[in-house]
Amino acid sequence: MITIKEIAEKAGVSPGTVDRVLHKRGRVSRKNEENIRRIAEENGYVPNQLARRLQRKGNLVFGVLIPYPNTEYGYWQQVMDGIEEARKEIEVLDASIVYSFFDRHDKSSFLNAASALFKNNVTSYIVAPTIPDGMRELASLHPEVPYAFIDSSLPDLSPFWGFAQDPVAAGRTGARLMCLSHEPLERVIALQTHKGAFNEEMRAKAFTAALSSFSPDTVVDSICLEDGEEMETVLRKILGKAASFGIFIVNDQAAILCKLLEKMGVLEKARIIGFDLSVENRKHLQNGEIFSIIGQRPRTQGHDAVMAMFNHFTLSAANGNLSAPVDIYIKENIPESEHWL
């Protein structure tokens, strides 16, 4: 795209003369005016309407409604880091971001955080729908305010934007990875730790269906265990004296699972596949206790959700969904910097 300076060079006039012609700010000879407009048209010049559009619309306030950043082993901090990168890009153009955090296990915490967020008269908002009933209630309370889903989706709601990984693709990927064992595993478990979490349920369902298709003779269980003591009891019962087994844990708690299996004395028998390259997961992946981690680029999800909203209100960009890739990490290809996550 040609700039005012480049048009001026081609026309043999000053940038100020070009500015006056393109923005109708004063007298310029007809010859120069016609020449400048011809050059601009032939080279696809597009005037920057951004500042004027922002001025007409007033300040844009984008809300962010996510679980507390210091929970879930740094995953939500990575989301927030991406949002902060976007904030630095848009704040010079009179757009701002306000946060409100909630406990992902508590619907009332979610609704209270949402209520606090809307006191800021948000233009639109980013939300992690980890509490489905709370999200449905929020959408019904503010149907006029567009929102973006990150991290997950809900089948009965239609956000204006969506930035989340396809849980079915992630589950099937986990099944493929589990089948890479040199010898068949005696037992395989799809393990959830948050009851009612749509993303986890879909990952576990896709994993078990795919694994049964890829390896029909493998016994696979799908269970949800939120309590650590209960998890140990149930795993001991299911695994019994299995010489080898695999666990597909459908969230970022693979490192916690490693510690539990070590306590049980069976860690060396396990093939563990989990999600998200947190600091703790990275350590266990590096030392070989975790076989593979599936990444979903939380930093990019946060950044791109903000920019999609900003571009919609300033440049009339369309809405839509952009599924996060299913990244696969093994100990040999761990990114050195979190920038690439």
Description:
- This protein has 341 residues and is α/β, with parallel strands linked by helices.
- The protein folds into three domains: 4-47, no CATH class; 54-164 and 298-324, 3-Layer(aba) Sandwich (Rossmann fold), CATH 3.40.50; 167-295, 3-Layer(aba) Sandwich (Rossmann fold).
- It is 45% helix and 17% strand.
- It has 13 helices and twelve strands.
- It has helices at 4-11, 15-22, 30-42, 50-57, 75-90, 107-118, 132-141, 167-178, 198-214, 228-239, 254-264, 279-286, 298-315, and strands at residues 60-67, 95-102, 124-127, 147-150, 161-163, 187-192, 219-224, 245-249, 270-275, 292-295, 320-321, 327-329.
- The strands form two sheets. A six-stranded parallel β-sheet has the order 2-1-3-4-5-11, sandwiched between helices. A six-stranded mixed β-sheet has the order 7-6-8-9-10-12, sandwiched between helices.
- Helix 7 links the parallel strand 3 (124-127) and strand 4 (147-150).
- Helix 5 packs parallel to helix 13 (298-315).
- The protein is elongated.
- It starts with a helix and ends in a 12-residue tail after the last strand.
- The relative contact order is 0.13.
- Residues 49-56 have low confidence and may be disordered.
Would you report the number of β strands?
12
- Strand line-up in the sheet with most strands: 2-1-3-4-5-11
The percentage of residues in β strands lies in 15-25%
Biggest sheet features: 6 strands, parallel
| Principal-axis shape | elongated
- Low-confidence spans: 49-56
- Report the span from N to C terminus: 32 Å
The total count of helices amounts to 13
CATH architecture call of the largest domain: 3-Layer(aba) Sandwich
Q: What is the assigned CATH homologous superfamily of the largest domain?
A: Response regulator
CATH topology of the largest domain: Rossmann fold
Question: What structural class should be given to the helix and strand makeup?
Answer: alpha/beta
Instruction: Give the count of structural domains.
Output: 3
Helix content: 40-55%
Quaternary state reads: single chain
Tell me, what is the CATH class of the largest domain?
Alpha Beta
